[in-house]
Amino acid sequence: MDTSASKLRAVLKEVSTYKPEEETVAKAAASVLGLNGEDSDIEAAGVLARIVREINDQIAKIDADEETKRFVRERFKQFKGLGNLGGVNQPVKNARGSILKAEVLNELLAVHATLSGHFRMLENPELNGIASDLRKMAEQLGAMDAPVEIREYLYGILSNVATILDGIDVFGPEYAERKIQEMIGALAMKGGAIKEAEPKYWEKLKNKLSQGGRAVQAAARTTDAIDRIGQSDIAKNVVDFLGNGAS
Description:
By secondary structure, the protein is mainly alpha-helical.
């Protein structure tokens, strides 16, 4: 089942690779949508604004508990700027540092899964708290004295782990535990610059990831039944996307 969130992600994924990257998001979207003519960028901006409104309406009407509603609003809030001219008139190269980043587009998968009825929040405050902490730590990377590529790499890893922890209903505890272990290994291989520049941050990061792994193990032991998407196209897309994003 398609949702407005999946449509938006499909468009933005194509926009993220658009060249020349100096063109605006609206211009790139016009090309992706097959719109032509002198005012095609304005027309594309209208399409994006309409999709944003549709998603907001769907979130407002979703039949879900308050925690799930909070989760999906938090995932979608960074895309609301596409509903105004400021969001769509920025160059593609600028948007690649925000809404067009792979880990940010990943958030639309969670929105889509929720709106299509495949997702409910697992009532696990510990997992949700760790996910929130990891997102805060990801934001702190921007001010650190380390190569940009390393910081961006770690940002992607932390964002992916946070999404897995928040969306354990989608992924299941076994997948979440395995992915966290893979990411801890990746950090050990490529995070040396952060470890050297910010040893206290590094220790806190290792402890937080380990805490997340233990919390997932506990969830697997204590949860009798977790609703999952299973082998649907959504699940395969999520797994493939996260796998590519963490490599």
